[in-house]
Write a structure and sequence with these properties.
The strands form 4 sheets. The protein has a 5-stranded mixed sheet with strand order 5-1-6-15-7. The protein has a 5-stranded mixed sheet with strand order 11-10-12-9-13, with helices on both faces. The chain has helices at about 1-20, 55-65, 75-85, 100, 145-150, 165-170, 180-190, 215-230, 235-244, and strands at about 30-35, 35, 40-45, 50, 70-75, 90, 105, 110-115, 115-120, 135-140, 155-160, 175-180, 195-200, 205-210, 210. The N and C termini lie far apart (about 75 Å). It folds into 2 domains: about 25-115 and about 210-244, Periplasmic binding protein-like II (D-Maltodextrin-Binding Protein, domain 2), CATH 3.40.190; about 115-205, Periplasmic binding protein-like II (D-Maltodextrin-Binding Protein, domain 2, 3-Layer(aba) Sandwich). The chain is of the alpha/beta class and about 240 residues long. Strand 10, helix 5 and strand 11 form a beta-alpha-beta unit. Helix content is about 40%, strand content about 25%. The chain is built from 9 helices and 15 strands.
Length: about 240
């Protein structure tokens, strides 16, 4: 009889454990972002919250797709490594879709067209475009901007852990120019009009996408569905007006 009671109790506990595993709220989706790229993602000085174009966009997609997300602020290289290792479920951080990155992660449909451009000091009259870049040129480590500078024979790439440090080096005269995504370049020039200027035109064709960990195809489908609704409702245009 005692054995029977223990067996019944064991079955009850087993059923309860299965119910707790299968039921309840789903775990939050961890979305990595390198919050050093205004106006796309950065930390608000007053509220200390992560804000920006990408943050609003991901929140809008999550609402449309009924996803429960949380943002994780992580620097650029660990972000890419984390996505490759499946540490994060997804990432949105002005990430250009490239064939090389596709080897390590999945990508949503494109949501923003961007490209590389050159920024110099306001007083610089020597550098007029990427075609006559010379000397030390700053870019953020591991970005497509850094990759483009490496292709220029007369330029010497100076890598920085974040793009803000590259621009600080430019304003201090430690590098001759900075190469980065056009929207980010515009933001720094607008906030430092007496020190910086853009030269030449956008010289690459790139598209931002939301990265998703490999194997999470269901999550990718939901993100694309949410993104499609966002695009249909012209939410991208609204965000451009807000953040530019």
């Amino acid at each position: 009889m005692k054995n029977l009671i223990w067996i019944i109790l064991g079955l009850i506990l087993a059923v309860g454990a299965l119910a707790s595993c299968g039921g309840g709220e789903e775990a939050k989706i961890r979305v990595a972002t390198d919050a050093l790229w205004p106006p796309f993602e950065y930390v608000d000085d007053e509220t200390k919250a992560i804000v920006g174009f990408d943050i609003d966009l991901m929140n809008a997609i999550a609402e449309k797709a009924d996803l429960d997300i949380e943002f994780v602020n992580v620097s650029w290289d660990p972000l890419l490594a984390g996505m490759a290792q499946g540490t994060y479920d997804a990432a949105i951080s002005s990430i250009t879709i490239t064939d090389d990155r596709k080897k390590d992660m999945l990508f949503s449909d494109p949501y923003y067209a961007a490209g590389q451009i050159v920024v110099v000091q306001k007083s610089n009259t020597t550098i007029t475009s990427k075609d006559n870049l010379t000397g030390n040129v700053g870019a953020q480590l591991g970005t497509t901007g850094a990759m483009e500078v490496e292709k220029i024979t007369a330029a010497t790439l100076k890598n920085y852990d974040d793009i803000g440090l590259a621009f600080q080096a430019l304003m201090n005269g430690q590098v001759n120019a900075v190469v980065c995504d056009n929207p980010v370049a515009m933001q720094y020039v607008v906030t430092n009009p007496d020190k910086l200027k853009i030269v030449g035109t956008v010289f690459t064709s790139e598209f931002y996408g939301i990265a998703v960990a490999k194997g999470k195809t269901e999550l990718l489908e939901k993100i694309n569905e949410g993104l499609e609704e966002v695009l249909e409702e012209d939410i991208i245009e609204t965000l451009e007006e807000k953040w530019y």
